[in-house]
Design brief:
- Helices cover 39% and strands 20% of the residues.
- α14 (339-352) packs parallel to α15 (379-402).
- With 458 residues, the chain is of the alpha/beta class.
């Protein structure tokens, strides 16, 4: 039995796909061991969203080969897609697996072993057998604990066709591909049976879910693209397929809470928000990627909406939900971003008053239009602007959490005495501990520290 160690880099979608790869190896008879242990096969689930992510991917691949020069090192995912298989293959990498091949990774590795006549005997020495057995038992125990976890991420869609000027992901992930509703609900029912209560519906471009199944006579390609979909959607000619999926997910007994990954602002209309607000299982937490609070920068980013349109979306959500948690992403130091343009972003963030803002320094990405844009900013300028937004984010986050003091909330407990409200405010019970998955109604009575609020059961 050969041993496999896996390491994940990147987004939640990557983490979800990592589980799929691990299951593929387990089902094929491989033994899973922790990444910091000696293994026959190392799998790095790579990320390529920035140059830094590329570098980390290369470093982890080299680290794996260094740990065991005789091991088979597998590079999987976005770094493979963006660089190309031939370029990724090297002294450190023996096997490359693209994003679309991840579910077949055990077969691909098995074929490599067969073609290279690699002995079926493990490279782990007899002296390590006892340690490996202990590791295996630890992994089994960890799996049992995982079964008691309360939140699961469900990837329902892959691919992106938005082509923001700074982003490599459309090249790494390819065209939009959506899972069938039956496939998604089948997985959810299995996870409910394993003890999960809350589900985060996610994808590379989640708002595109289902539009790859929509075809019209006037469609330019194989399926309606997102721009065509939005035009017909806002004209009332077509509904959002994502809502059809959520309707079916909400019908499943045991699905107590539903959250969303990042949503495209333009998919949120009055009717969309009203539809969700009528569903008690929907958590009022919405992540809307902004990227800049300045219209001229948004235009250079190829983001397809204005700050006024974005602001109207946040007002729609606040109209239909009571104090929803609205979070976002912002890139600082985009090429050509002037002091005045950055100041506009700061003022816009104050106007929207986000619960939380994830701040990223612009990273040049070869192969994207932004990489060739003039007036690239220095690292010092990016760092300075990042600090300004980090300070604002800290104040906004504390202010939003404090607004719940004295309010009645519902908490799903995950770690004994700590859990999360539907708005994803983290609380700690001072009265008692609860079993994982217990939903308790109570009141937020104060603040414990920067990350925790005080909760008391009613």
């Amino acid at each position: 039995m050969k041993s496999v160690a896996l390491h994940n880099l990147g987004c939640k979608v990557n983490a979800y796909e990592m589980d799929i790869m691990q299951d593929a190896f387990v089902n094929a008879g491989y033994k899973i061991v922790p990444f910091d242990q000696t293994a026959d096969i190392y799998v790095i689930n790579t990320c390529s969203v920035t140059n830094i992510a590329d570098r980390k991917s290369r470093q982890m691949l080299h680290k794996a080969k260094t740990k065991n020069p005789s091991a088979i090192v597998v590079a999987a995912g976005c770094y493979v897609n963006t660089r190309g298989k031939d370029e990724v293959l090297s002294d450190d990498v023996d096997v490359v697996v693209s994003n679309t091949e991840k579910s077949e990774i055990a077969n691909i590795v098995g074929k490599y072993i067969e073609e290279h006549d690699i002995s079926a005997e493990t490279v782990i020495s007899e002296a390590d057998v006892t340690a490996v057995n202990s590791i295996e038992n630890a992994v089994k125990s960890h799996a049992e604990i995982e079964g008691n976890h309360t939140r699961a991420f469900i990837k329902v869609q892959d691919g992106c066709e938005m082509y923001c000027s700074y982003c490599i992901i459309p090249y790494a992930r390819g065209q939009i591909r959506s899972r069938s509703i039956d496939d998604v609900t089948s997985e959810l029912k299995s996870l409910v049976a394993d003890g999960y209560h809350e589900f985060v519906i996610t994808g590379i471009h989640l708002s595109s879910y289902g539009i790859d199944k929509i075809k019209f006579d006037d469609t330019n390609g194989d399926h309606i693209n997102f721009a065509e979909f939005i035009k017909k959607y806002h004209a009332g000619e077509i509904d959002a397929p994502l809502l059809d999926l959520i309707d079916e997910v909400a019908k499943i007994d045991g699905v107590d809470r539903i959250r969303f990954g990042s949503l495209e602002p333009r998919i949120i209309t009055d009717s969309f928000a009203e539809h969700l607000a009528a569903m008690p299982k929907i958590c009022p937490q919405f992540h809307l990627s902004l990227q800049s609070g300045c219209d001229s920068v948004l235009s250079r980013m190829n983001r397809h909406y204005s700050t006024d349109e974005f602001y109207n979306v946040t007002e729609i959500l606040r109209k239909h939900f009571d104090s929803p948690a609205i979070t976002t992403d912002v890139i600082v130091g985009f090429p050509g971003e002037t002091d005045n343009e950055f100041a506009e972003t700061v003022e816009f963030l104050k106007k929207v008053n986000f619960y939380e803002t994830h701040i990223f320094k612009y990273s040049r990405r070869k192969g994207t239009p932004a990489d060739k844009m003039p007036d690239q900013l220095t690292d010092a300028e990016k760092h300075s602007r990042s600090n300004v937004l980090l300070d604002l984010n800290s104040k906004n986050k504390a202010s939003y959490a404090d607004s719940f003091i004295g309010k009645d909330v519902e908490v799903l407990f995950e770690e004994g005495s700590t859990g999360y409200t539907k708005e994803y405010v983290r609380v700690k019970s001072l009265d008692k501990s609860y079993e994982n998955g217990t939903i308790v109604k109570g009141r937020i009575t104060g603040r414990i520290d920067n990350e925790l609020m005080e909760f008391s059961a009613l």
